[in-house]
Amino acid sequence: MCGGPETVHRPRGGALVALSPPPGIAPAMTGDLTFHTPGQPDSTEATHARLSFSAVCGPPCALHVVIHAGGDLTKSASECGLFRQLRLAATADEAWEGPLDTALSLQVGADGIIGRRVSVYGEELDGRSGRVVLAEGIVGFSKAPLAISEAKPFVRSKKKVKTMRQETAEIAC
Length: 173
Prior knowledge:
By secondary structure, this protein is mainly β. The protein has no helices and 11 strands. The chain is globular and about 35 Å long.
């Protein structure tokens, strides 16, 4: 492919949260949080989480990750309820990856995490949390890209359909 070898180490498949600082907060953290099952890109559950970041201000600390009950970024994080939470130990490395205590459903609604808001808070080493959101985003699907041999070419075709007045019309698909 163009551009040389693939150098992205992000898991293929699962769910992805593009993290960025909330409005009005000095840039503190940007990056990706992925939920996935290693070696199973089509799994409907995530058994692992991977946090990679491009910038974290301050000394390494524990990170408190909250998956909220809702997905509304126009409200404050405290108004969005709690669905699940996890703690990750921030390291000097550019990424943290490890197993989750319980698997997460990669579905929309009910017990699924797709569409939910995620907030990342910093915690002091003594476990206290300042409850300041460092970064947040919405959980979305992260599908593995198709191999070139699997890709289907885009073909325009014309189909005849009945309109509300029972007339036949041609539309381009």
